[in-house]
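Protocol step 4 of 5: obtain the predicted structure for the target chain.
Materials: sequence only (see below). No template structures provided, no constraints applied. The aim of this step is simply to have a reference model before the mutagenesis design in step 5. Sequence pasted as it appears in the construct record:
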Amino acid sequence: MLDRALVFLDLETTGATAHFDRITEIGLVEVDQGRHMGEWSSLVNPERPISSMIESLTGITDAMVAQAPTFAELARDLFERLAGKTLVAHNARFDFGFLRSEFRRVGLKYAPDVLCTVRLSRSLYPHERRHNLDSLIERHGLSCDNRHRALADARVLWDFTQHIHRDIEAAEIRKAVADQLKKPQLPPGLPADLADRLPESPGVYAFYTQDNVVLHVGKSTNLRVRVLSHFNGDKRPAWRASAEIARVEWDAAAGDLGMQIRHRRWLKRLQPLHNSKPRQDEELWALQWDAVDGPSIPVPVDTAGLDLSGTARLHGMFRSKRTALNALRKIADEHGLCHIGAGVQKGPGPCLGYQLKRCRGMCVGRESAIAHSMRMMQALHALRVRDWPHSGPIGIREHDPITGRTEIHVVDRWRHLGSADADTDLQDILQSRADAPFDAGIYRILVQYFKSKPRDGEIIVLG
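Step 4 output (structure tokens):
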């Protein structure tokens, strides 16, 4: 490891997402052939506010970075300082991802050899459970005078490297380093310039055979990194290194939602051999029940044709009526509900659950119908299909700040109607895809999207 030019680097940032958050501080230690050559650090103006949580962790405030240079102002000098050196960082994917994104914003391509000290520690000390920086400091007796500041943490990495060279045989370190720096071995059917052609954007990808059989469909926030990762290391499924792989296709998105929707669509359309195969969902059943205004027991209903703008009475999405009833029976047993009151057995009582000492006795008058309904409401709550939270169709605009691409997803009543790059195409999508079917997978994606309250998504009211 010490036979090359190294730069030990640490970054502080406004958050964890490289395509959205920005760098607030850079610290690095330069080493050449094992000799300490110098240090460099700088605060960076992220051109956006620093959250109170990040401020409390790093001690870096908005006031401290207000007069600091932006990354664009530092980029050229920093790029030259890093050129030709192996980048060493702790959890290197994080630091490298931020550096690469920042350099791309100013038109520079940064593609160094990268060593991760987390992976190095795991390889050299496999008996240890923890490999975060605090654990390394404690375990190896390292010192850090200003934890969570960039230069101080970069110094720790240099100290750790010196420590392992005193503690472990050089041949073992050399092997661990070589394993990390091993370049992807692409199958012979793939073009040699694949790495250069793959975009560093979110999206989906598929591996094909020469006969156009789809082997695998995947998704990633960074297509280039993810696709190439399939060909790294020795412990990968045989198909990933197979000479059968003759072609890679991909479709870049502007953000995470577009990536998730594409992944669902590709899985259903391509039916790859090595993915779990989603059903086409021609038929979906739900349990319809409301404790106040509805049937006295949950009733399985076919969701085809139902108005999904108000779905408070629907619970779960099932592949068949039988699957829905089986799920209801399992819920009844797990929560001590009456099989008759839950609708999985006809009266009179006692029900099977009561005979097996699982039911609390509504069927024999030992529990009131109101008390049983309250408990059933709690048992079914996790399965409740959420009401559509808007008055009509909407567009969700995503923007990739690195590529500058914008994409708008048209959604109505949990159905994805289509996506467009321009506002002028939205009404065409609304009119041509108004009868798009409900897809339980898309429903789950959208529920998670609204729950996470993404910072980079803009809602456009369309109706």
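Step 4 remarks: The mean pLDDT is 87. The chain is about 35% helix and 20% strand.
Proceed to step 5.
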